[in-house]
Amino acid sequence: MRERQRNPLLHGAHVLDGFTHLAGLLSASLFVVLILLVLYNVCLRYVFGFSSIALFELQWHIFAAGFLLAIPYTLQHDKHVRLDVLCQHYSPKQMHWLKIISNLCFVMPFSLLVLHYGSDFVMMSYEQNEVSDSGGLTHRYLIKAVPLLAFCLLFMQAYSEILKSIAFLKNGDKPDNDNQDREPQ
Fold first, then answer.
1. pTM to 2 decimals?
2. In a domain, 2, yes or no
3. Contacts by 104-111 with C-beta closer than 8 Å and gap 24+?
4. Contact status, residue 171 vs residue 134, Cβ threshold 8 Å
5. 76 inside domain
6. Contacts of 158 (CB under 8 A, 6+ apart)
């Protein structure tokens, strides 16, 4: 039996999905670190009477980074907010067209806007060597760069979703992970 040739669109999507998967693992790891940091901070405060502004700010930064890096992961696994009430009667072909249009018209342009305007804030923070005003953390440009990373990954994941939808519309090909997390309807 002849082995089916690999679709180049799905291969490209699979490569992009790998970056998103790593971001999802990093996001999950950050939330584990956050839980441990909160426990440590609570012990320091209530057992030893010690409080640190830097630790509180670190908690906020870890939460923000974890949340932002989870955004492309939710798009990859189709767990993002949608209007399922409107889409429940669409055929698979119509849903793939909707994915292409929504990613091209909304997700990708918004990601590009964040990348364009956000890069100035990161550069300004880096050049000024911005630090916390209240004696907290230094190197504020690092946390300001996380949204750029997240929206760069979101842009790449939107492109991956478009590639997968085109492959489906063109050949009926579905990636291995398509619909793996969806509940049966």
1. 0.82
2. no
3. 104/162, 107/75, 107/154, 107/155, 107/158, 108/155, 108/158, 108/159, 110/151, 111/151, 111/152, 111/154, 111/155, 111/158
4. no
5. yes
6. 75, 103, 107, 108, 111
Per-residue pLDDT of the chain in tens (185 residues, 90 and over written 9): 344 557 888 888 889 999 999 999 999 999 999 999 999 999 988 888 888 888 888 999 999 999 999 999 999 988 877 666 677 788 888 888 989 999 999 999 999 999 999 999 999 989 998 887 776 778 888 889 999 999 999 999 999 999 999 999 988 766 554 444 444 33
Contact status, residue 44 vs residue 122, Cβ threshold 8 Å: no
Query: What is the total count of domains within the chain?
Result: 1
Instruction: Give the range of the structural domain holding residue 121, as residue numbers without chain letter.
Output: 8-171
Tokens of 168: 């489906």
**For residues 177 and 23, what is the distance between their CA atoms, to the nearest angstrom?**
17
Angle, CA of 126, 128 and 129, to the nearest 5°: 60
- What is the rounded end-to-end Cα distance, in angstroms, of the chain? 34
